Amino acid sequence: MFVGREWLSGQAIGLRLLAAVAAALLVLLAGFMWPGWRASRWGRRPEILLALVVAMPAWALNRTWMHLPPDRDAGSGRPNVILITLDTVRADHLPSYGYRRDTAPNLSRLAERSTLFLNAIAPSNYTLPSHTSMFTGLYGSAHGNNLEVEGRVLSPSETTLAESLSRAGYTTLAVVANSAFLGKAFGLSRGFQYHDARVCSDPPYLPRNAACWPWVSAEPGYRPAGSIEGETDALLRAVAARSAPFFLFVNFLDAHAPYESPRSFSRMFDGEGNDLDTRAIVEQLSADNNHEHWHVPSSQREHLAARYDGAIAYVDSAVGRLLATLRSLNLYDNTLIIITSDHGEGFGDKGFFLHGNTVYQELIHVPLIVKFPHQTNAGRRPEVVSLNDVFPTILDAASCRSPHRHDGISWFASQPPRRVVLSEGFKAAHVNGNGGTRLTAAISERWKLIAGEGGAVRYVDLVASPDESITIPRLDESVSARLLESISMLARMRPQASPVRPLDREATQRLRALGYLH
């Protein structure tokens, strides 16, 4: 009777509005032409018809309408899987990693009964390539899904995590705040049977839509953690009684600039007397094309970091409620839960702010907490791992074979290998006018190499200098050769022939609002 939810979710607001108007006209036409209605006592009440006219387009346009696929018995015993990405959260701003502020008490409690990975590295320094690597197990040089060629989308020849799990009988669900990158524009919605990428600018017909705050970037906006968690809670209750296992992907965006959260969180570490305009500071930073020569007063830097920490605390509170829902529905034990981030954020560390511009640790060292199915004891894993490993780990848990060659290693492996992991800064200088220089970091047990396209390299001992302030002139030849060979391997990769198409206006607006396009 109504336009399919999945089709509507991929359309522009104007087209969805047109569908809503068409639905309203159908209601009016039916009401006036159906004799039975006009003769009934309800037909003599025009306010009822008016209410239907308002309700019908609301239902047609609303993107939270749950249209789940038919339940399938995919084999008992296979665990559910939940992947949560805390957009823009750096590891060293969580107490589990030694941070001085208690920004994430719920994540700390989870880590006490789960496995904390101490050295997880994001495959890139911004959202799109990092998430694509999680969904495919491929480095960015292999999947090619980044902004170096604006409008490039993931090749149809690459099978995503959701596509693999859906084919294996999993119910696949996604609720994302970062609709700019994680909606349909770049192909990362593929394989999800339910994919909700609403934004705050969508008409607030229902109370759940109205939860978006008017002061969070009205155009195009993003949904705050409370709204994302509310939608996720409803989904969990809808799938709790189904026989098929589910894969749920949840993305929170609140820790992304301009770090907005409810007042109780935004002032948690910043103090009531601070009247600095966070949004104005961030807009100036985003507009400044010379990221290596920012001159930001220490008071502003401290303010931004405090607001960022408050936003992390807000997201943590939503994650805590989500975990409580899992326990109340008896879903917690038999669920693989992976909580991580796609990249970090700079606050003047080594002269850089925001993200997408360096491959220093503050941008690529990310939190990673994994609760394996039926795990009760805490674990600590110090080895270097990559978020490429998300792909084989989840497929391993679901007893699925990988659909293609990948660059990850399952965390179910009993003996973690000594390895070199990589992180790529695509268009790393797209904000400082240097023509899109790419940076690459290669990281082993304690050594890090940063290489630019021009051949310049830097070596760092991350044990002796975790803040990367001390550069080593040279490394042992065998160690250096190992790191350089890993970077050479990336240089030899060529992505599949991905289609290139112009970004539509809505996608462009969302990317510009997040500071990725200028």
Largest sheet: 9 strands, mixed
Helix content: 25-40%
Overall CATH class of the largest domain: Alpha Beta
Percentage of residues in DSSP E strands? 15-25%
CATH topology call of the largest domain: Alkaline Phosphatase, subunit A
General shape: globular
- Any idea what the CATH architecture of the largest domain is? 3-Layer(aba) Sandwich
Structure notes:
- This protein folds into two domains: about 55 residues, no CATH class; about 350 residues, Alkaline Phosphatase, subunit A, CATH 3.40.720.
- The two termini are about 40 Å apart.
- Strand 13 and strand 14 form a beta hairpin.
- The chain is globular.
- The chain has 18 helices and 15 strands.
Concise structural overview:
This protein has 518 residues and is an alpha/beta fold. It is 35% helix and 15% strand. Strand 14 (447-452) and strand 15 (457-461) form a beta hairpin.
Pick out its properties.
alpha/beta, Alkaline Phosphatase, subunit A, 2 domains, 15 strands, about 35% helix
Protein topology:
Layout: H1 5-9, H2 13-33, H3 35-39, H4 46-61, E1 80-86, H5 105-111, E2 115-121, H6 127-136, H7 140-143, H8 161-167, E3 171-176, H9 179-182, E4 194-196, H10 207-210, H11 225-239, E5 246-252, H12 263-266, H13 278-287, H14 298-328, E6 335-340, E7 346-349, E8 352-354, H15 361-364, E9 365-366, E10 368-371, E11 379-386, H16 390-397, E12 421-425, E13 439-443, E14 447-452, E15 457-461, H17 477-492, H18 505-513
Parallel strand pairs: 1-5, 1-6, 2-11, 3-4, 3-5
Antiparallel strand pairs: 2-9, 2-10, 6-10, 7-8, 12-13, 13-14, 14-15
Helix pairs in contact: 2-4, 11-14
